[in-house]
Amino acid sequence: xxxxxxxxxxxxxxxxxxxxxxxxxxxxxxxxxxxxxxxxxxxxxxxxxxxxxxxxxxxxxxxxxxxxxxxxxxxxxxxxxxxxxxxxxxxxxxxxxxxxxxxxxxxxxxxxxxxxxxxxxxxxxxxxxxxx
Length: 132
Prior knowledge:
By secondary structure, the chain is α+β, with helices and mostly antiparallel strands. It contains 4 helices and 6 strands.
């Protein structure tokens, strides 16, 4: 399976199928104006498969992680990575609002951030409201 949004693509498959997908993208993508850039690509894998994935993609510039990575405004990966991502995002939002609009920061903190929390609750399964 694969998912595309503009020029961002993702897939979830066994390693051999992902490698075939990557090779096909590189072979036919330029004919359609799509030029895959391995340096900007990430494969998120389970710890016991990391070596196998690195071996399969050793001749590419693709990054491999067992932690996680941000994807289309949210995070994919280990529970720890997702929780850290959410906490950092919320801290940054609060900091930005406090610096740029100090008079409105209280209102934003008590009312406005609930909408941003709602976004995370919809896009990150299992994220509890207390984390956000």
